[in-house]
Design a protein that fits this description.
Layout lengths: L1 E5 L9 E3 L6 E10 L5 E5 L12 E6 L12 E3 L5 E3 L3 E5 L2 E9 L2
Antiparallel strand pairs: 1-9, 2-8, 3-6, 3-7, 3-9, 4-5, 4-8
Length: about 110
C-alpha cells in the first residue's frame, strides 16, 4: 500500500497525482490531519485535472463550518476494497495535512 501526504493547499498546482495516466488505482482512505471550517478535498478519477474542474470527480468532501456544528470529518474510509479509479487519480485540496492511502492495481 502506498501513501501520499499533502502538507498544505495544493489548489494552485492542480493537485497531487496518485498513480499515472491510464493506471488503475484503489483509494482506501483520505485522512485529514488538520481539518478546518469549510475545507474542501476533491478526489478525481484522472491524474491531471484542472483546479475547480466539475468533471471526473470521484468524491468530494467539504468540512462543516462552525454554523453546522464543526463536526469535522477526520477520515473517509472506502472500505477494504477501496474506491477504484481507472485513470490514475488526483486529490485537490485547500486543507492542510491530508494523507491518502492508495495502491496501484497490477
Amino acid at each position: 500500500m502506498k501513501y501520499t501526504y499533502i502538507a498544505s493547499s495544493n489548489t494552485a498546482t492542480n493537485g497531487t497525482a496518485l498513480g499515472v495516466d491510464d493506471q488503475d488505482i484503489n483509494v482506501y482512505k483520505i485522512i485529514f490531519g488538520l481539518p478546518a471550517d469549510g475545507n474542501v478535498a476533491t478526489l478525481y478519477d484522472i491524474s491531471n485535472p484542472v483546479n475547480a474542474a466539475t468533471t471526473n470527480i470521484a468524491c468530494k468532501v467539504t468540512q462543516p463550518t462552525a454554523a453546522a456544528g464543526k463536526d469535522w470529518v477526520r477520515m473517509v474510509d472506502f472500505g477494504p476494497e477501496g474506491m477504484r479509479l481507472g485513470e490514475g487519480g488526483n486529490l485537490i485540496t485547500d486543507a492542510s495535512q491530508v494523507t491518502v492511502l492508495w495502491d496501484a492495481n497490477a
